[in-house]
């Protein structure tokens, strides 16, 4: 498996390399400039390297007291299935300790994974998406209760 090195600052991150990781993971096509903004505005970040190559990343947007939101955990396919995603999640939860709540939204089918990390389903979570039709189509939003 090899050793991983961990970085928690964005100073030396190559955001083109991060954008490539997100495409490979696959978490979609996220432009390097957008990734630089979201990681730069996040209180906590993890970048994981193997032999100098970026193989994992994650971030938590947090306010320092009340709420931390974990988003965008990506692991390169060659390193998936080795527990690296779980390690990134555990590190982000550890970094966010002390917040009243740590939240995330899970893609359908991943609930058991997050449950194994201590997350419980929320009964009252609501969201406004930029593209609600797509979010409903892929199961992130419940379209049955939307107002027309």
Automatic annotation (TrEMBL):
Pfam families the UniProt entry points to: Acetyltransf_1 (PF00583)
InterPro entries: Acyl_CoA_acyltransferase (IPR016181), GNAT_dom (IPR000182), NSI-like (IPR045039)
Keywords carried by this UniProt record: Acyltransferase, Transferase
Chain ranges of the N-acetyltransferase domain: 5-143
Lineage: superkingdom: Bacteria
Protein name: GNAT family N-acetyltransferase
Any one of the GO CC terms: cytoplasm
GO molecular function: N-acetyltransferase activity
């Amino acid at each position: 498996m090899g050793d991983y090195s961990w970085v928690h600052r964005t100073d030396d991150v190559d955001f083109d390399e991060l954008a490539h990781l997100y495409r490979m993971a696959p978490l979609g096509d996220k432009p390097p400039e957008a990734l630089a903004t979201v990681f730069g505005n996040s209180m906590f970040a993890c970048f994981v390297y193997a032999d100098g190559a970026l193989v994992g990343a994650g971030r938590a947007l947090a306010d320092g007291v009340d709420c931390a939101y974990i988003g965008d955990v990506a692991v390169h396919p060659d390193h998936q299935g080795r527990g690296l995603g779980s390690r990134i999640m555990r590190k982000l939860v550890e970094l966010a300790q002390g917040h009243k709540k740590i939240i995330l939204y899970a893609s359908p089918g991943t609930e058991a994974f997050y449950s194994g990390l201590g997350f419980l389903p929320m009964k009252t979570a609501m969201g406004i998406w930029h593209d609600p039709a797509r979010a409903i189509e892929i199961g992130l939003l419940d379209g049955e209760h939307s107002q027309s």
